[in-house]
Amino acid sequence: MKLHQLRPAKGATHKEKRLGRGDGSGHGGTSTKGTKGHQSRSGFKRKMSHEGGQMPIQRRIPKRGFKNIHRVEYKIFNVGQLEQLSDKYSITEFSLETLYVNGLIGQNDKVKILGNGDLKKKLSFKVNKVSGKAQTVIEAAGGTVEIIK
C-alpha cells in the first residue's frame, strides 16, 4: 500500500448537505424545511422547553411541599468549636460584632450556640439563641450567656 492509495473507510465520510442551491441539488425550493409555518421562516429559534403544543413537563409534574416564609436561619456554632475559635482569633467575648469582624458570619446573620463538645475556658456570649445543654456547659466553665433579640 502506498500513501496515495489511502482512503477513509466506506461510510466514514458524508457529502455536505448544500441547502438552497437550486432544484438540481435535490435540496432546492424549500430547502428541506417543508412548506409554511414558523420553522420554515428565516431567523427561527425554538424556545427552550418548548414541546410543540404538548403540555410542558414543568406543568405536568405536580408541585410538592412548600417554603416557609417565616423560617429563621441561624449560623450554628458548637461549644467544642468555640474554644478552638477563641484560641485562633484570641476572642473571649463572642458577640455578633466580633464574629462578623473575624469573618465567621455575615452582617445580617443570626447565631445559635449548640452544646456538642466540651468547654474549659471562661467565655462570654451575646448571641441570638442558645440551646439548654450549651448554656449549662458554658455556665459550668464559668462563662456567661446573654441572649439578644
Give your account of this protein's structure.
With 149 residues, this protein is α/β, with parallel strands linked by helices. The protein is built from 4 helices and 6 strands. The protein has helices at residues 57-60, 79-89, 96-101, 132-140; strands at 74-78, 93-95, 110-114, 124-127, 129-130, 144-147. The strands form 2 sheets. Strands 1-3-5 form a 3-stranded parallel sheet. The protein is elongated and about 95 Å long. The mean pLDDT is 93.
Q: Are there runs of 5+ residues with pLDDT below 50, and where? A: none
Q: Helix share of residues?
A: 10-25%
Described by strand count, sense and barrel closure, the largest sheet is: 3 strands, parallel
Strand order of the largest sheet: 1-3-5
Task: Report the average pLDDT across residues.
Answer: 93
Number of DSSP strands?
6
Oligomer: single chain
| Shape verdict | elongated
Radius of gyration: 35 Å
Strand content: 15-25%
